[in-house]
Every structure is written in C-alpha cells, then in structure tokens.
Design goal:
128 residues; mainly alpha; Arc Repressor Mutant, subunit A; HTH_ArsR_DNA-bd_dom; DNA-binding; HTH_MetalResp_TranReg; transcription; transcription regulation
Length: 128
Amino acid sequence: MAMKAAEGSVELADDTVSLTAAACLFHGFSDPSRLSIVRHLALGEHRVVDLTAHLGLAQSTVSKHLACLRDCGLVSSRPQGRASMWSLEHPQAVMDLLASAERLLSLTGDAVTLCATYGSESLPGETA
C-alpha cells in the first residue's frame, strides 16, 4: 500500500514538472512582439537590425525578446561578421504549434481575448 502511494507521488511530481515546462514554453510565446519575431524568423534567418526594420520595434526590444526566446530554446544565433544571424531552433515544430493555436482560436472565437486575466484588456498598451 505504501509503495502504491509512493508511485502515485512520483507520477504527480513528474506531471508537475511536465506541466511547469509546458507553462514556461507557452510563456515564451505570450508576448505579441515575441510572436511577431517568431513568425518572421519562420521566413528564415535575420539579423536584429533586419527584425527592427521589418517589425517596427526598437533594437533593445528585439534583443530582449530574442534573449527570452533563446533561453526557452526556441531560437539560436550564429555569428556573421560583426552581426548575429538569428533563426528558429525547431521551425517545423514551432509552425505546427502556431497552426494548432490558430485552429483553437478559430474554435473559441473572442473568448480568449475577453478573459479577464489574460485577455487583450490585460495586455499593456492594448485596448478593446
């Protein structure tokens, strides 16, 4: 009986670790600027200066978000001269995830944007 309880605790701990990792992954995608960067990198490698020009974001903003995405294991860079070329680490998996998110959003309609905690009203600079 004690063995059964211990096994259940291990499974619960494994679930908690997996769910925490999933929550951290989704947090990496939780900012509209990061999503814009990810979508742009899906087109191919870019330098920070290219991303700032294409997305209309400040260099510091792009760099900050790239650092977050790098820490999440979603992007990587390689040196090219004095610049760095940024790319998606797992482009097909990222695109599959974004496509699944779009399908889910089409099913839920405006429900997610109306959420009091995470909806568009709760985002900095966003208004309904």
